[in-house]
Amino acid sequence: MIIFNHRIIIAIIIYVSLFVAAFFFLIRPMMKNVDAQIGQLTNRYSEYRSTKDKIARLSKLNDSLGEVDKAKKLLAFALPADVDQDRLTLTLEKLVSDTNLNLTSLTINTTKPAAVAAASSQSAPSSNKTPVIATPNTIQAAIDVSGTYNNIKSLLTSIEKLDRILAITSTTLTSQISDKTPDTIAATITVTGYTVGAKR
């Protein structure tokens, strides 16, 4: 009985020794390899998160640039670089037509201001000269229309809502009431706009 127990103990010791040997020579290297692969996956995931964050920032930047482009286009239309008299004429004629008014006349004049120098006279040395500044061109349009008071009021509102900056500087109303036209009013509307102009 004692001999049998010794054999069992010896067998257990042998199995444990084999397991330990297998752990150190087989399982442990495999575990190290698994740890290395886990480390690589962790690094790749960190790179993925970093790349994803960069893409998100670039997307936001692209959206911001898109908003800037839209704002620049609106500004270019509101305060154009040139007079573009034909386009302004068509715009005002369409507003008059849309408000059911009769257009009697439409006159557009452009004033090109002289360059302004805020420094000394031209005889001063060039090193002391102040840079010449060009002020915006001024556009003045006189619109003569006739129609009802409400339609004239609608025209004024439409002019104020234009994307292009036009300021209503004066409005003159004259009654044209007669038997045939009991509610007709003549109006002269003067509007002023500007262009960016170019440096001189």
What's the topology here?
Layout: H1 2-78, H2 85-98, E1 102-111, E2 137-147, H3 149-160, E3 166-175, E4 185-195
Antiparallel strand pairs: 1-2, 2-4, 3-4
Describe the structure.
It is built from three helices and four strands; from the N terminus they run ααββαββ. With 200 residues, the chain is of the alpha+beta class. The chain has two domains: 1-78; 85-195, Alpha-Beta Plaits. The chain has a four-stranded antiparallel sheet with strand order 1-2-4-3, with helices on one face. Residues 116-124 have low confidence and may be disordered.
Radius of gyration: 42 Å
Series of secondary-structure elements, N-terminal to C-terminal: HHEEHEE
Mean pLDDT: 76
- Main beta sheet: strand number and arrangement? 4 strands, antiparallel
Using the coordinates above, name the CATH class of the largest domain: Alpha Beta
CATH superfamily of the largest domain: Ribosomal protein S6/Translation elongation factor EF1B
Count of helical stretches = 3
Per DSSP E runs of 2 or more residues, the count of β-strands stands at 4
Distance between the termini: 118 Å
Q: What is CATH's topology name of the largest domain?
A: Alpha-Beta Plaits
